[in-house]
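Now for a sample.
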Amino acid sequence: MNRHRTLHWIAVHSLGLALGAMFLLPLVFVLLTAFMSDEQALTAELWPRDWRWENFAEVFVRAPMLSYLGNSLLYSGLATAFMLVSSVPVAYALSKLRWRGRNAAFLLVIAAMMLPPQVTAVPLYILWARFELTGSLWPLIIPHLFGDAFSIFLLRQFFLTIPRSYVDAAKVDGCGELGAMLRVVVPMARPGIAAAAMFCFLYTWNDFFGPLLYTGENESSWPLSVGLASFRGMHHVEWNLTMAATVLVMLPVVVLFLVAQRAFVRGITFTGVKG
């Protein structure tokens, strides 16, 4: 009976199991290669003969990974904080306030989402060069003070799921628009805010084009994404060390996703309820 139930469960979830295996196998390959010796890494063997934990320590000797990690945390942390401070009020205005031009403003947000970053790369680089900020991560951090189109869209969709009557009740109790937003809407929208924050953090953590454009010649400002690419270039034959560095780069975002997984999934689910 138990065997029949197990086979039935596998048959029902076969597509999900196949997709899960398809996503997990590359990660397993990277993890196993990270423990191999340099000679074994380029062979057809998949299982390490000796588990070389020292590969992870060797990564810190070959490259300033702690400096790269600090730059990534600075970039992702400040960009996420600035995005929340600027995007939450805009999303509130687009979802809870009635004002002339609101729909046109929302269309501008949608249009900004569709604009490829490569289109504005040259004029923005010239702008930041005139401010003498190239060679640092500030040209990538400061724009988040002016909002992020995708985050505004995501937060607006979540705010629409909160009944307008809660905001009206807060105003009857004496709250202004700012008080209603901070005391009523923001606490109720924590899953959506967590999802937007995680999207922004993951995007900036994995961002390669922006840091390469602005910090390409200044290694002291490199985040992990650029540092990892350079590490692979310097030690292209030592795939075991490259895979060990890749595991170290992936580890923080995997831990962050596992910790915030429930809020992230709930936030994504509710943002698709209303248009």
